[in-house]
């Protein structure tokens, strides 16, 4: 096992002599196996090992026992340990994130803190071959392209390494048993309420029993082949983009000539251009890529709004991509979204909108038995009084009639009273109904559209920050 991991690590140049390696250490079989193997290789490579354990405070006493176990193992093997406790449920409530996204964000934030403090060379993550198979299947089910089904990279950003990606879960569990490591078991991994757990506990065993006993390794080989193909196509796309894309400040232009390229190269080039301007690499899907292609085929002067606050325009066949938030002095379209006659839309089924760094969902509900104060990023309004909805940033002279008051108050005064930093005030979404401000997100709600006993249709507005 150790020889196999060492050979795999050498294949991908994961580490070298005298490296400082930070181990993401949960206390489960995978991370403990990874830790033990690196300890066995430490003398040969003169590693300096560190470990990071984050207690999400989700599993009560069990999580505390995980923390105690990790501390004991690090003391035993002379590994410098960093521990952090984070109330994930609190973050979920306050920021409207899923527990999975909140947990991942906090973990990687913690890793980065230690990375900087200790001048770490590599951060070792304990993904294994089964994790790879589960990831590829999950992305395939969700409709991912070749980039997604390439799976988990053995090394990413010349920083994160996955030395046991070559080992399957059964081998890892046997290694832990043979070495009497007694890792902790997270019982939530045995629950089938999450998609990944369903794939792990139901789908993969079914395929293994009925179609292919070696399905995990088969899917891993598929991932490697897909990765090789995708790497080549992305290389071609980068070359093409370099020749046909002009990027300056918060906008860029794709030259019309690029649209004659093969779709495999064109689609990747467009995605890269969008990510360059948006300065993020999430939320752009194939439907957005095809929307850009169709826009280029249409009339000059037409525009479309994409996620991450990107406005794309056809300028005589060239495609202009503008970052609306980082260039607020730009076109008015960047700064607002308007929905006319909301009850005549599909709001009963739910409307989803991306605005600035937020995902906004709106839907009509009938049940008044809701906790109106449970979450400051979920608000309820009397939809019977609403015709048009506009989401925008603040403007000079903006006023709102706060809950419990009869006369309007200037937003400027409210921001001062709430001690909202000046540099944040222009980036707070404002919800306007029928030309009256209904909600200054996270700050103040209007009395005009409050739910009363006469309300029949309630508009629920939910805001989540995208990661």
UniProtKB/TrEMBL annotation:
One of its GO terms (cellular component) is cytoplasm. Its main location: cytoplasm. The chain crosses the membrane at residues 21-39. One of its GO terms (molecular function) is tRNA(Ile)-lysidine synthase activity. It comes from the Bacteria. It is an enzyme of class 6 (ligase). It catalyses: cytidine(34) in tRNA(Ile2) + L-lysine + ATP = lysidine(34) in tRNA(Ile2) + AMP + diphosphate + H(+). GO terms for biological process: tRNA modification. The keyword tRNA processing applies. Coiled coil: none annotated. ATP binds at residues 26-31. It is found in: Cytoplasm. Its EC number is 6.3.4.19. PANTHER family: TRNA(ILE)-LYSIDINE SYNTHASE-RELATED. Belongs to the tRNA(Ile)-lysidine synthase family. The N-terminal region contains the highly conserved SGGXDS motif, predicted to be a P-loop motif involved in ATP binding. This is tRNA(Ile)-lysidine synthase. The lineage of its organism: Bacteria, Bacillati, Bacillota, Clostridia, Eubacteriales.
